[in-house]
Design goal:
This protein has 308 residues and is α/β, with parallel strands linked by helices. It contains ten helices and 14 strands. The strands form three sheets. The protein has a six-stranded mixed beta sheet with strand order 6-7-8-3-9-10, with helices on both faces. It has a four-stranded antiparallel beta sheet with strand order 2-1-4-5. The protein has a four-stranded antiparallel beta sheet with strand order 12-13-11-14, with no helix packed on it. One of its GO terms (molecular function) is ATP hydrolysis activity.
Length: 308
């Protein structure tokens, strides 16, 4: 099956000479949730803007369901919903009218039943007659999501959708995202909350300096690049790691009260048994031992630093 979104050798250089994208290629499968991660200025928003037809590319091609985003703008834009970072809303319009108007902008006939469902899914129904200027920042962001869903898109871009949104509202938003994915909508997410990507995404794409550094299934990525950490809390603090333990590359933390040992879970031997024996031989008594799996954030930082 052909990807719903196909990006081929995409580049973008602005009039200032800044090259925001450098030969980006990326295929997005229908019905998946792809998390697009990268630091500020990495090229995430430029990439999304080109796919959505807001910014023209300098080179390369983008197709949505087989339609070219430049040549077939109307067809591709009708299939895409975009939730931008900026809270751009008409302050003196009501929630109902602004969401209904957005549906009309995409050439769709009025459908009050669909608009009602969208507003209820986003906990906006009781605010439908309020003007946007009366809403909180979190409510306004939900309105942006409602506008993006008003025309029933097949592809939904969420560009930092939960920025400035409280934890409970963030959770309800991801429940909506899961329902959308279950209905067949393809979702591309950028977020600073990497734990969200870890929880909800099927695949992870990392972009930095205008280049895609990696695209990987989330589970495979964490298995391949994940590390575990052994934390050893000491009964008595030490000033330095004894020379006899130098081969373990231990790091001394918390004023000498804790030793950290990094190991590869896929290795034939972790070295933990030998380390514990060596600690005993060195006369170091232990108070507690615990392990910690690398998070997606740890892996993300590692990939970005390696790509710089």
């Amino acid at each position: 099956m052909a990807p719903i979104v196909s990006v081929s050798n995409l580049s973008k250089t602005y009039a200032s000479g800044f090259q925001a994208l450098k030969g980006v290629s990326l295929d997005i499968e229908e019905g998946e949730i792809l998390a697009l991660l990268g630091p500020n200025g990495a090229g995430k928003t430029t990439l999304i803007s080109i796919i959505c037809g807001i910014v023209n590319p300098s080179g390369g091609k983008v197709a949505v369901n087989g339609f070219d985003v430049v040549r077939d703008f109307r067809q591709t834009r009708a299939m895409i919903g975009l939730v931008p970072q900026e809270l751009t809303t008409d302050a003196f319009e009501t929630v109902w009218n602004t969401v209904s108007f957005s549906r009309g902008l995409h050439g769709k006939k009025p459908d009050p039943v669909h608009i009602e469902k969208v507003l209820k899914d986003l906990s906006l129904w009781d605010k439908k007659d309020n003007m946007l200027r009366e809403l909180s920042g979190g409510m306004k962001r939900r309105v942006l999501i409602a506008k993006a869903l008003s025309h029933e898109p097949r592809v939904l871009f969420l560009d930092e959708p939960t920025a400035g949104v409280d934890v409970s509202l963030r959770k309800s938003m991801w429940e909506v995202v899961e329902r959308l994915r279950a209905s067949g909508v393809t979702i591309i997410l950028t977020t600073h909350y990497i734990e969200e990507a870890e929880e909800i995404a099927d695949r992870i794409a990392v972009i930095n300096g205008g280049e895609i550094l990696l695209v990987e299934e989330k589970a495979a990525l964490m298995t391949k690049l994940g590390r575990k950490q052994l934390r050893v809390d000491l009964a008595q603090p030490i000033d330095e790691v004894p020379e006899t333990l130098s081969s373990y590359s231990l790091s001394l933390r918390e004023n000498g009260q804790c030793l950290i040992y990094d190991y590869d879970t896929s290795a034939e031997r972790t070295g933990i048994t030998a380390l514990l024996a060596a600690l005993s031989e060195a006369g170091i008594r232990l108070r507690d031992i615990s392990t910690r799996q690398s998070s997606l954030e740890d892996i993300f930082v590692e990939i970005v630093e390696a790509g710089q």
